[in-house]
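Narrative summary of target 7.
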Amino acid sequence: MRGAKSKPFYVGVDVGGTKILTGVFDASLKLLGAVKMKTRAEEGAEAVLDRIESSVREVVAEQGLRMADVRAVGLGVPGVVRRGRVVCATNLGWTDLPIIQIMKRRLRRPVFADNDCNLFALGVHTVEFKGRPRHLLGVFLGTGIGGGIIIDGKLHVGFTQGAGEFGLLILDRTRPKTGFGIRGTFETLASRKGMHWRLCQEIAKGGKTVLTTELGRRLQGLRSRHLLQAWDDRDALVRRVVREVAQDVGLAVASLISAFGPEYVVLGGGVMEALKEPMLPIIRKTAAQHVLPGTLTGVKIVTSKMGDAGGITGAAVWARSQVSA
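Modeled conformation, tokenized:
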């Protein structure tokens, strides 16, 4: 058992489309331990909520703590969160889910929730960058694409709590629709799902890739690690698609720089973690070609060093801020 039980501890949960990552933090936001489990959203909301509860209790117990030692729990979910309810989380199949009410009842601790990418941006800003940049944008490429906005050092969620949904930027209206009917978005083109779509389109037209050997022609179970391995194997089709996606990310980043004038644009998520080396130079070059002269001066386009820990850290930061307010 750990000592100093009077110290407050915080739990951060990052609920993704494919995995749930949960960490316990001390009062200084040092990560003490984490657990990971599959989301399995196809099994329904109740099953996912069961896994969230299990992950929280497991990570707390692994540190020799009791739930009573946890001051608050923060939840990051991939959707719009308003007044404690998940308005819409497409990748989870959730609509109008009262997640705070449910998890408070299950965990019997204070629970606070927000969009996962909002909280990732908050975690990166607060912990990785020590709160120094006054204006920072987070752009996170994973199963989908999301973002977070820091203005004047504070998280900005907008009037409807839906600010930062960068994945809905329209890049090409001739391209495929999202699951909710919007055509040609940044997410449909440059998320891992978007890369999957691009590759399958090329395979259907006769394109060849080493990925079909392991995953079949429909590339079932495609992950970022598969894309990295194919890149390292000098797979011509994968390399072309990765370069095209990097150009689309650069276009989106240019638009965001023109709209917000940030000091930092921080790129994160599984796609960027795996493919940083080939993608980042293309993103920077494309962004520079699509902004007004001088507006990129001093702006830093970087990747986060926090990896998976960014989301759970931001959730813990959010929980701590809410009980300290």
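The radius of gyration is 20 Å.
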